[in-house]
Amino acid sequence: MQQFSSLPERNSQIDGNLRLTPIEHLRYQFWLENSLNQLQIRLQDYLISVATKTALGMATEAEICQIVVNELHKALSDSLIAFTQCIVGIALFEPQQIVGRISYISHLSSLNPNFELISPTEKKPFLRLHKSINLQDVEEMETQKYQSAWYLFENTQGIKAWLIISTSNFVPDCKLLKDIFFPLKLKLITKTVEKCRTALTQLVQIQSSQKYYQDLANFNQELERTNQLKNQFLANTSHEIRTPLSSIIGFTHLLLAQGYEPEKARHQEYLRIIQSSGKHLLGLINDILDLSKIEANQLEVQWEVVDISTLCRNILALVKEKAANKGLTLRLEIAPGIQNIIADPLRLKQMLLNLLFNAIKFTMKGSVGLQISSQDGFLRFTVWDTGTGISCEDQSRLFKPYSQVVNPAAGRQEGTGLGLVVTQKLAEIHGGYLELESVFDQGSRFSVLLPLKPTGGVLAAIETTAELDLEVVIHPGDDEMTSSPVILLVEDDLPNGELMGIYLRRLGYQVNWVKNGAKMWNSLAETEPAVILMDVSLPDANGLNLVQQLRETPKYQHIPIIAQTAMAMKGDRESCFAAGVNEYISKPIDLKLLASLVAKYSKSK
Where are the beta strands (DSSP E) in 155-311? Predict the structure, then answer.
């Protein structure tokens, strides 16, 4: 440990009228050096103990201050220099305040409880623990000839501190610390102030280091928790994906089995199962993608005027079968006067379906309902049930990604655990919020509140053009094929190419299907199509590069191009339009939407 040593020259003058003998000089210098070393030892021992602590919040500057006043009191009360009954304290002043308080006084001072210091300005006692003290008095004590107050520090909160030293029998007309040893005492006090400041700086550094490691430990714990949740999420998602995949693969295998000829009714049933399983898979993938888009601030919202009655009845029609299978009653209640709202109909439908499917999943008997009402400028969509309810503990983690509540009816966790998170974030994107009321074993009420009057930016985003007609347009049959529009399908995936080709031909179009960019150019040389369906990812070329080349070729630049891609992030859509496409459709292909887009652009040609 570093020791303090500052010995002046021998026979140095302590006072103008006194010279010490060499022996006396060494005695007093030893006193000074020993006092400072004792202070240093106490401060270093304390800082070491703080540095070895694993928990934060135990180390404070108060303990540093108390060590300083205790050690300084012991040193100044030493009989070697015949200076007894001293008092050492520290006064604290809040920011911008002229009255502070005595916050630290040596515990040794309690041996003489009658000590008090007379105020230089008010001539009355004021130096006691917790006693108020004026800044004017402290500044006068700091600047007088025989100094008795020293500025100590200012902490990060703006609190200032002064070290104050006096005798317990101080009277107004005496000089504080006025004796022949004042230079030695002054050196001791000055060095003590320096060591105090150094110790406080080291304490801050230790606390910062401890906070860093504590934060790192907390981060690691949170990371471990998140990893556990994600592992659980992947396990649940794997189960959810494999279940419909088993149906799709199994029933497809059954239909393709050699010699198997099911009756038409059974055939239709199998196809419905395959379609339902495929939609379930798509829903799982959409939940994951939606959360990723929301977190990246890339989710697109299409604002429209939504008819509430029509939307709600369509939604209940989608969940009716699941409710009937469990013997549950579905109820719909729309308050009078509620007709429409400005929102994204697809996202609003997604929010309500998430809540309704959850309500049905956690309800074994009774009812599930959808209630629409207005409240303080918001439209309230409330999905209620008479199910198991949600405990307070589960409610606190219900809206965290990948967290799920165990379904007592199923005996296991179902779904991805993302539905409520996505619903909450979609409500916030709409300028609203999600509320939850639940009583365990009695039921739950989830409410989506959306503003009745959206902001000006939302209103400006609403398209004034007519909505795109999604009804399938039937074109002339095979007997008129020669006059029907030609569609150039550029698609390398065999199942998707077969699907779109068969569907468009049934609608009366001629379809030229090519699987790469080179064959596309060959087909264009033979026949000019009414519409080009362009896959973005091809084996020999980038579909967007082909679009740019078509737009740069005068002969083909007027042909409408519809991009089709499995990439569905926001940036992908913008990239397609920047390349020059007329429309964009993501996979899996919505056949009705495909038919509407093809009809729109083939007519306009």
Answer: 160-167, 304-307
305: helix, strand or coil: strand
The residue type at 462: I
The tokens for 191 are 């060095």
Q: Greatest CA separation found in the chain?
A: 132
Count of C-beta atoms within a 10 Å radius of residue 538: 22
The answer, yes or no, to whether the previous bond of 485 is cis (omega within 30 of 0) is: no
Instruction: Copy the structure tokens of residue 508.
Output: 């009366």
Q: What is the CA radius of gyration of the chain?
A: 41
Share of the chain above pLDDT 70, in %: 69
Q: Which of 52, 55, 51, 93 is nearest to 204 (CA)?
A: 51
Helices 182-256, 61-76: axis angle to 10 degrees equals 160
d(CA 552, CA 544): 12
Token digits of residue 560: 């409408």
pLDDT of 283 reads 67
Residue 115: pLDDT over 80: no
Q: Which residue has the tokens 């999420």?
A: 233
Q: Can you tell me the distance from the alpha carbon of 496 to that of 491, in angstroms, rounded to the nearest whole number?
A: 8
> What value does the mean pLDDT take over residues 70-76?
85
User: Which range, 157-171, 233-247, 290-304, has the best average confidence (pLDDT)?
Assistant: 157-171
Is 308 in contact with 340 (CB distance < 8 Å)? yes
b/e code 545-577 from CB counts within 10 Å (16+ = b): ebbebbbeeeebeebbbbbbbeeebeebbebbe
Strand partners, 88: 165
Residue of 423, 385, 383 lying closest to 401 (CA atoms): 423
| Residue 296 confidence (pLDDT) | 61
3-class secondary structure, 491 = coil
Name the phi and psi angles at 383, rounded to 5. -105, 120
Both tokens assigned to 190: 């000055």
| Cα 501 from Cα 512, distance rounded (Å) | 8
Measured distance CA(425)–CA(359) in Å, rounded: 19
Report pLDDT for 380. 94
In this predicted model, what pLDDT tens digit does every residue of 390-403 receive, in sequence order? 888 777 777 776 56
- In order, the DSSP letters of 227-259 are HHHHHHHHHHHHHHHHHHHHHHHHHHHHHHSTT
| Each residue's pLDDT tens digit, 485-501 | 999 999 887 777 888 88
- The answer to whether 530 touches 487, Cβ cutoff 8 Å, is yes
> Mean of the per-residue pLDDT values for the chain?
76
Other residues' Cβ atoms within 10 Å of the Cβ of residue 321: 9
What is the pTM (predicted TM-score) of this model? 0.42
Q: 9 or 164, which is more confident?
A: 164
Residue of higher predicted confidence among 602 and 240:
602
Report d(CA 188, CA 600) in Å as an integer.
Answer: 94
* Residue 193: both structure tokens together: 């102030």
Sign of the torsion formed by the C-alpha atoms of 572, 574, 579 and 581 = positive
Residue 87 DSSP SS3: strand
154 contacts 118 by C-beta, under 8 angstroms: no
Q: How far apart are CA 580 and CA 551, in angstroms?
A: 7
Q: Are strands 329-334 and 160-167 parallel, antiparallel or unpaired?
A: unpaired
